[in-house]
Design brief:
- The protein is an all-alpha fold.
- The chain has a single domain, classed as MetI-like (MetI-like fold, Orthogonal Bundle).
- 82% of the residues lie in helices and 0% in strands.
- It contains 11 helices and no strands.
- The protein is globular.
Length: 274
């Protein structure tokens, strides 16, 4: 704990402020689950078609070990795949920003990469790198790559021209201009792109697990959901989906916190607090 009374007071104030912000989302979730339960009971929907929330939560409790073991696999894939997309996307964005020729050569292909069906590339990826985790990481990175590139390129281009002109009058080199003006704009933009990519990154893990072969009966929540639906274990499939849902939310807000820590200047300008 910090010995600074001011820091401690700020930390306590943030903790108190977070509770009212969590309340609307919590109430919305409870209302949605209640309406879901009422609909299933009133309409008499078969559990194989749409399980009620209580059946889903029963599976979460009764199969916690199975869900956890598969969740850890999927979570590692999402985190590493997103990190790979962030590093590669940032590097490509910087390269095409610094080289107009490279932008004209590479940017259209980055756009086109989003239209490539994953099933087409899954087989050669497994042929080249086997049935381990790496082909899955490449699939997730391919899905998450484009949002990082686009937001980073936009961030690099958003620097005030007058600021760059001032740096030139001070005889700053191109590298110094990039370091002191363009890079501070690119970091929050890249992390914003990563947050956008998370919206498809978790489902990207599902696609990666179901489109690339793996060893063993289960190798992640994606394969577990597919196997459970095939075996008519619908409540357990919904329980696994709920785990993915919660994980996506946790990752999104974790990235938001990281963005506040790595680029506090971007949020101070907007008057935002972590």
């Amino acid at each position: 704990m910090s010995s600074d009374p001011a820091s401690y007071a700020r930390s306590e104030r943030r903790s108190r402020d977070r509770l009212p912000r969590l309340l609307p989302a919590t109430l919305f979730a409870l209302i949605a689950l209640g309406l879901w339960e009422l609909y299933v009971d009133a309409a008499g929907v078969d559990v194989l078609v749409l399980p009620a929330p209580h059946a889903m939560f029963a599976e979460l409790w009764g199969n916690a070990g199975l869900l956890w073991s598969n969740f850890t696999i999927t979570a590692r894939e999402v985190v590493l795949g997103l990190a790979l997309a962030l590093v590669a996307g940032f590097a490509v964005a910087v390269a095409i920003h610094l080289s107009p020729l490279l932008r004209r050569a590479v940017y259209p292909h980055a756009v086109g990469s989003q239209a490539v069906p994953i099933a087409v590339v899954a087989v050669p990826l497994c042929f080249w790198w086997g049935f381990g985790i790496f082909p899955k990481l490449l699939v997730i990175a391919l899905i998450c790559f484009f949002p990082v590139v686009v937001t980073t390129v936009d961030g690099l281009a958003s620097v005030d021209p007058d600021q760059l002109k001032l740096l030139r009058t001070l005889d700053a080199s191109r590298l110094q201009a990039f370091r002191f003006a363009e890079l501070p704009a690119a970091v929050p933009a890249a992390l914003s792109g990563a947050r956008i990519a998370l919206a498809v990154g978790v489902i990207g893990a599902f696609i990666a697990e179901t489109s690339t072969p793996s060893v063993g009966p289960y190798a992640g929540l994606g394969r577990q959901i597919t196997s459970d639906l095939t075996a008519l274990q619908t409540p357990r499939a919904y329980a696994a989906t709920a785990v993915l849902f919660a994980f996506a939310i946790a990752c999104f807000y974790s990235l938001t916190l990281i963005e506040h820590r790595l680029a506090p200047w971007a949020h101070k300008a907007k008057g935002e607090n972590p």
